[in-house]
Design a protein that fits this description.
By secondary structure, the protein is of the alpha+beta class. The protein folds into 4 domains: 5-114 and 264-298, no CATH class; 124-171 and 226-262; 307-415, no CATH class; 420-490, no CATH class. It has 20 helices and 10 strands. It has helices spanning 5-20, 35-43, 54-68, 94-113, 124-142, 144-155, 196-199, 202-220, 230-237, 242-263, 265-284, 290-300, 310-327, 332-336, 340-345, 353-363, 366-373, 376-381, 403-414, 448-462; strands spanning 28-33, 76-79, 84-89, 386-390, 395-400, 422-429, 434-439, 466-472, 475-481, 486-490. It is globular.
Length: 491
């Protein structure tokens, strides 16, 4: 549905204000939809057309019931596309529309300029429809149960992609200069025989031989180095039918498209909240609308219970960065100052804050954002702490307010979306064509229930037994699934 005239005027006004503030965004196409329709679109991940699968229906039921019982309300949804598509809910108030439009333009600016989105397909709206057409064609040809069952297996592996190297055409191989020894340990220049024992001592010769053997073993290994993009490897090398290979590629392509949104959730929502608050309070709100905006904005950035609110954390961090760089509260001199009174009065009036937050928006993701800009002063000001459940008291208690523990806990929650890091290390395990994975153990054990299902699903794709190296109960173990049985063995 096209926008009514009064909303069109608000859109143009907000767009011009966003441009004046320095935002650089894709053009935005707004669509008016009903609350029921937006739940349906949200269940599809923001896209009006997706391939048929039961999980979308499950998500719609969850969203519909949550909305019916007043547990949530979707105010806006914007799609990383060129042009961006954004959905407005019918029946919202004028202040809501002003807030949402400013929020959307900031999101579009972030999508366009943040480096982690640069690889994403800017025509994904069309590509999703193409994926849907292909999957429906396979359903018509091979049957819904068979295609849906294979999709289930692929979707359980959609976190096993390499978000940092998404554009490479094949598994990475070591470079030619990756440490392999020369064919001979001798220098290229001919040397007299009597000098050889001095130029080529026995220790040197043995070292070169060992390097050569290691290089030969590496060349024979498949893959030659641990492969993080497991889905890409399976799409290339698993013994699949053409339609199955295409389905694996579809799941991987969509996983890579959505990955930057997970990697920048705090920054993206913080950036949008920062700009909607500035644009509205400084430019578009009337005096009669201020109180209503304050009420709606406070609901957006409110903290509920123990849940992390990415809107709140991102917004406050961007404000803190801007304030610090305006006052010059950074650099060697600031870090080495031990005088709390001097730090409290510190103001070099540099005025670099606006430039800095645009630079941060361009380069960082959530992990590097928090790692670099979360400070002890920020945690103290915002009363941040870690918590744990105390079984004896049957309640949640504060565990620590120490900055190092707060920061480590936050980084642990958001690194790799809080999911285990898995690499494929051998596609010919035991010299029988079996697949061997390795879990990068960092203190958290794998959930056995999910691990069994994931191994079984990978076995469905690879067609041969699949194993994973991990740590459980303080000892190294190998978990295996041959398609019928699961086993665990200590190493």
């Amino acid at each position: 549905m096209s926008l009514p005239l009064h909303l069109w005027n608000i859109k143009e006004q907000t767009r011009n204000h966003a441009l004046d503030c320095g935002l650089d965004f894709f053009e935005v196409v707004y669509e008016m939809v009903s609350p029921e329709k937006v739940n349906e679109i949200a269940a599809y991940g923001g896209f009006p057309v997706r391939y048929p699968h039961w999980r979308f229906g499950m998500e719609y039921e969850r969203l519909a019931k949550s909305h019916l019982y007043g547990l949530h309300k979707i105010y806006e949804m914007v799609i990383n596309n060129d042009p961006c598509y954004a959905y407005l809910i019918e029946g919202s108030g004028i202040v809501d529309y002003k807030l949402i439009m400013a929020h959307v333009y900031a999101h579009s600016d972030f999508f366009k300029n943040n480096m982690w989105f640069q690889h994403t397909d800017r025509k994904m709206m069309d590509e999703m429809a193409n994926h849907a057409t292909r999957v429906r064609r396979y359903i018509d040809r091979f049957g819904q149960d068979r295609v849906e069952s294979f999709l289930d297996a692929c979707l359980s592996l959609d976190s096993l992609v390499d978000m940092h190297f998404p554009d490479r055409s094949g598994p990475r191989r070591p470079s030619d200069g990756g440490g392999a020894a020369a064919p001979d340990h001798r220098f290229a220049v001919r040397t007299p025989e009597y000098l050889e024992e001095f130029l080529y001592p026995e220790e040197y010769v043995e070292q070169q031989r060992r390097k050569r053997r290691e290089a030969e073993e590496t060349a024979q290994r498949f893959p030659s180095r641990p492969e993080k993009d497991v889905l890409h490897f399976l799409a290339q090398h698993a013994p699949l039918e053409n339609w199955e290979r295409d389905v694996v590629s579809i799941v991987r392509e969509e996983a890579l498209y959505f990955a930057p949104q997970g990697m920048t959730k705090i920054m993206n929502e913080g950036w949008a909240s920062y700009w909607h608050s500035r644009i509205l309070t400084e430019r578009t709100l009337t005096s009669a609308e201020i109180v209503e905006f304050a009420d709606h904005h406070s609901q957006t950035v409110a903290t509920h219970g123990r849940q992390l609110n990415p809107y709140k954390l991102g917004l406050e961090l961007f404000r803190d960065i801007e304030d610090r760089w305006n006052r010059g509260r950074f650099g060697k001199e600031w870090d080495e100052c031990d005088d709390l009174r001097m730090k409290g009065m510190w103001d070099r009036d540099l005025g670099l804050g606006r430039e800095k937050i645009f630079q941060v928006r361009r380069v960082y993701n959530d992990v590097t954002f928090l790692d670099e800009f979360l400070t002890p002063e920020f945690c103290l000001e915002h009363k941040m702490f870690t918590w744990l459940f105390e079984p004896r008291a049957n309640r949640v208690v504060i565990n620590s307010k120490a900055f190092e523990e707060v920061k480590a806990t936050l980084l642990k929650q958001i690194t790799h979306f809080g999911k285990p890091v898995i690499h494929l290390v051998d596609a010919n395990h035991r010299n029988r064509g079996e697949l061997l994975l390795q879990h990068r153990f960092e203190g958290e054990e794998l959930d056995l229930k999910y691990a069994v299902d994931v191994l079984a699903n990978m076995r469905t794709i690879w067609r041969r037994p699949v194993s994973i190296l991990t740590v459980a109960g303080g000892e190294s173990q190998i978990w295996s699934h041959d398609g019928d049985h699961f086993s665990r063995d200590s190493l």
